[in-house]
Structure formats: structure tokens, C-alpha cells
Give the backbone structure.
Amino acid sequence: QSAVARMGDSEHLDAQIKQMVKFIRQEAREKAKEIMTKREEEFNIEKLRMVESGKAKIREEYERKEKEIEVKKRIDQSNHVREARLSILAERERALGMLKDEAQKRIGALIQSKKYPALLESLIAEGLIRLEGTAVNVRGVEGQANQVEKALAGAVKRYKVWAEKEKGAAFVKEIDVSFDAATPVPNSKGGVVLATTGDAITVDNTLEARLDLAMETRLPETRKVLFGGQ
């Protein structure tokens, strides 16, 4: 080939090489751009995920604290209600105690009144009927032996009338009610204690015992009078 022809071939080859280099560079730039774009997208996605995760944690923490506050509020309210109820109950018990104390103070006036002998007779008669025994021992409180003995006669008479009707004449003949003056009832202001032979069965009809019974059996009515329907 001539020198001109060789020169032309060389120039053509250089042009092809330049074209290939240009193409490779273009491909590299596009690839690099694609990689950067992908990395930026991944970064943005990760950043968004982290932001959302952070928001979720903040929401969870807020909800947890909100629930804790609500629970504490309910507990405080419950404790307040409970304390108020206990305070009311304590006040009511104190009022009932004062009522009982007042009633006990009036026992002293009752045993000095004209009504006491009849009451004493009724207490003995009622105790005899409750025992339904033939051999019964009656004890009074200290200092009231004479009053008890006087009331005993009428009470036994009433008991025999009841026994005649409920148990028959044979039972009445067996009735033996005695008064034990040597063993007075301790810690009582009035009333009697009755017992069958050997103290097998005992009926406490002292005024204190009857007061306790009245307070117990009439407690609903007493509460209604003192505190209303609450």
C-alpha cells in the first residue's frame, strides 16, 4: 500500500478507537449515574424507614405513658372512693356506738323505774319458755336478789300456764325453778341468767345481752333511721 493509503487507515483506526473510548466513557458515566441514583433512592428509603420507625417508637412511648397516666388516674380515683367509703363506714359505726352507749346509760334509769319489776318478771318468764325445762336455776345481778325473788313467783306462774297448754299437766308437775342468790351475775346492771341442770343450756337475759340482741336484730331499721336509705 502507498503511504497515503496507510495514513488513511491509521486515521480511520484512531477515529474508531476514539469513538470506542467515547462510548465506554459515556457508558461509565451513565452507569455511575445509575449507581448514584440507586444509592440516593436507597438512602432516601432507609432515611424514610428510620424516620417512620422513630415516629412509631415515639407514638408507642406516648401511648405507653398515656396508658400509665390513665391507669394511675383510675387507681387514684378508686383509692379515693375506697377511702371515702371507709371514712363513711367508720363514721356510721361511731354513730351506732354512740347510740349504744346512750342506751346503756339509760339502763341505770330503767332499773330504778317502776317499770323494772314487770320487765324483770317478763325476762324470767321468757327465759323459762325458751329453755322449756323442768329444773331451772335463775341468777340475778348483784344487789337485786329481793327484786328477782319477787318477780320469780309471777314468772313461774306464767311459765306454768304456758307449759300446761304446750306440754301438758305431767310436765307442769315436774317444774322446779330455783333462785341462786349466792352466785350473782357479774358485770351487769340488770336482768337475769337462766340455766338448766348443770348449766347444760343457758339463756342470758341480762339487760346488756338484750340490748346487744336488739342492736343486732334491728340494725337495718336503725341504719335506715340514722342514715336514710343509703
